[in-house]
Design goal:
Layout (H helix, E strand, L loop, with lengths): L4 E7 L3 E8 L4 E2 L5 E4 L6 H16 L7 E8 L3 E2 L4 E2 L13 H6 L10 E5 H12 L7 E7 L3 E7 L2 E2 L16 E2 L2 E2 H4 L2 H12 L6 H7 L4 H25 L3 E5 L6 H14 L6 E3 L5 H8 L4 H8 L6
Parallel strand pairs: 1-5, 5-8, 9-14, 14-15
Antiparallel strand pairs: 1-2, 2-3, 2-4, 6-7, 9-10, 10-11, 12-13
Helix pairs in contact: 3-9, 7-8
Length: 309
């Protein structure tokens, strides 16, 4: 039997999601989907137990003879080449731990399963470029707008992390923008802080603002300003990279109808014309992108440029 199944894993601060993927076709095997919750502040052994519970549920649904291994979409800082967590702001009890060694002993498979790792925003972008909104485009930029500002630049489906046409590691979040850095302006935090500054009220997040936009002109203007800011931030990089499409994921994607026109009009003024589209796959993009890490030819190309810590 030809091995064509890989398990994609999306690691967040509060949950793990995993699913088997046919990587010959780039298709999720929905019946194998599994999810477990936890707190990233918990001790290492409890986190690994939760991860193993989710993975074992998925493994039970997969023919071992067809299984290539497990790919992880996981936040940084992380030694992606060697599978070692370097995070302290999250998962501090996993710091300097070799994830495959710790996790394989808890899995139902009798053999040590190969495990490969990639930044979560990059894995999301790989999935979107391969099977989502970026499919059939060569030069794709993907951003995630939510609790933080993620980004990735892909050429032919491969993340580009160095060179004059992309920011270092493909990351935009830390670059100077207006009175701070980009992450200050392109995350839920900007909406919450801007609304409180104007009204004195604390809002839970973007979803609550969407409910107010129709009746409160200031809220509507916030989304328009956000769109203009996004165009200003992205225009030089879209131009330099020669981007064909900009794909947006994350929770703020639901606000796209309110900010897209302002984004496109401002982008045109800046002399750039790149369509802005919503993610087609949403949370499934990271699962498919991480599973693709088990495709050897793809991994060879990606791993050559993984960050060296």
């Amino acid at each position: 039997m030809k091995k064509a199944i890989a398990i994609g894993v999306d690691i967040g601060g509060t949950h793990i999601t995993c699913c088997a993927v046919n990587i010959l076709e780039g298709v999720l095997l929905q019946a194998t989907l599994s999810r477990e919750s936890y707190d990233h502040e918990e001790p290492a052994h409890l986190i690994f137990q939760r991860w193993a519970t989710a993975l074992n549920h998925t493994l039970l649904q997969v023919d071992e003879k067809a299984l290539l291994g497990i790919g992880f979409a996981i936040p940084g800082p992380f030694d992606y080449r060697n599978g070692i967590s370097m995070m302290l702001h999250k998962f501090k009890h996993l710091y300097n731990m070799h994830i495959p060694t710790c996790l394989n002993t808890l899995l139902m498979e009798e053999r040590d399963l190969p495990m490969r790792f990639l930044n979560d925003a990059t894995a999301f972008a790989v999935g979107e470029a391969w099977q989502g909104a970026g499919r059939n485009h060569e030069r794709v930029v993907v951003i995630t707008l939510g609790t933080g500002f993620g980004s990735a630049f892909l050429n032919g489906g491969i993340p580009v992390v160095s060179g004059a046409d992309v920011p270092k590691e493909g990351c935009l979040w830390h670059l100077p923008f207006k009175n701070g850095i980009a992450d200050d302006y392109f995350s839920t935090r900007w909406f919450v802080e801007t609304y409180k500054k104007q009204t004195g009220e604390t809002i839970s997040g973007v979803k609550a603002l969407l409910d107010k936009a129709e009746n409160e002109p200031f809220v509507k203007s916030m989304f328009e300003i956000f769109g203009q800011h996004l165009a200003e931030c992205m225009a030089p990089w879209l131009r330099q990279f020669g981007a064909e499409i900009l794909v947006v994921g994350g929770n703020i994607v639901h606000a796209l109808p309110l900010l897209k026109t302002a984004y496109e009009e401002h982008l045109q003024k800046l002399g750039v014309s790149v369509p802005l589209v919503a993610s087609k796959m949403m949370e499934n993009a990271a699962l498919i992108g991480s599973a693709r890490l088990m495709e050897d030819t793809f991994w060879e190309k990606v791993s050559a440029d993984l960050p060296t810590l």
